[in-house]
Amino acid sequence: MPKPDRKFRRYDPDQSTLMPHDMRDWLPKGHLAYFMRQVVERMDLGPFYKYYDNDGRGCVPYDPRMMVTIILYAYAFGVNSAREMARMLYTDVAFRFLAAGNYPDHETINGFRNRHADDLGKMLQETVLLAREAGLARMGIVSLDGTKMKANASLAANRSKAGIDEKIKRDFDEYLKRAEEVDRRENAEFGDGEDGFILPPGFYGKDLGKRLDEAKRQIDAEDSRQRSEDEEKAAARKKKEEEAARKGKKLRGRKPKEPDEKQMHLKETKRNTTDPDSRVMSTAKGFVQGYNMQFMVDCESHIVLEVDTVQDCNDKRQMIPMLDRLTKTHGRPIALTDDAGYFSAPALRAALARGVMIFMPSKNRHKVSGVVRQGPPPDGLSQAQQMEWTMATPAGRDIYKMRCSTAEPCFGVIKWAMGFSHFELRGLKKVRLEARLMATGRNINRLNTVNIERKRRGGTLFPPEMRSLATS
Description:
472 residues, Nucleotidyltransferase, domain 5, two-stranded antiparallel sheet
């Protein structure tokens, strides 16, 4: 091939280096990988090391500090697949820098993540503590919001108890046909003896059987729960009717159906055979098979304070559990703001009894009324009317505006900027861990952004003794 007269920079990919490279030279100054090492160095990893406090037998394990670092960096980078993490240890410079010449395979990474699920879940608290040490996440006004996240399962896998039995029979018949076909083919190749007999792959594996059994168990439990609730409501109604009869009055309202009659009109309970813990969730774009993630975010610093993953499609019963979780881990906030989906009079009374100011509309809308109120609500108003009055005050309007710029952008960053469109793991316990790791990655990215901003002003997020890695 003829070469032009113009000279180019030397390119010889087969040329070996005379001196070993420092991998820190391959990453730009201020890269997230440097900050990740700095963050992990400040975390309490004692519980991870305690697990390996034994007599030393067995294979030499990977250093938990390295494993925690690459897992947290992967979630901050937008990777939640163990196979993808293992691949990037070879192909991505930042992963190779953080692993320092270690190459755990995907089974090792996934095993570490499952084995230390509780300790990895606590890393979110560690990032909040780091933020508070840096003067962030001061727990003034906190925003609560929820989003639906798709599970690692399909809507088409939802089946009733009868449908599960039918699937078992259909799959079993299919496996038997495949077995007969394999037998005929092997008999023709090896003869009629037992030599060469191979069980067909996928023959009703134990994992599939466990999922189907768990789905049937949950269906029975749900049917039993619904029947118990109907019986309790019928007994309460009967008691009210007897009290009204003694007073010579007639109880108003439509008489509820009897439990047996109501059961005939109930929709058949279904569960997903791929992930029995997942539920059908209603979203603005239709229905998805997934979970409901609940995030509490500090309105001032945009740091995620607490996370939970629930099976309820409705947010109405999530405010008090999330508030209690936050109070237990980091203390009580001054004020809490959330949307109308969380409003219920009992939850509002319980939150006020805990000493937390609540700002949320009582109606299904995002905008408060145009009427401006002043001062505390007058006496004689219902719980909903008191909240509407509070939301119409100048302070209520200003505080509620902060909600739209905290929790919802946090979901946008996690789903679109970081690329977490669905859960990779299955089961409620595992997706709770995954949601916490997503939030941990989000917090680390946020802390890195604040650190870069402070450096531009001549400061730093952490004390000077931890500055060496960040300025490498």
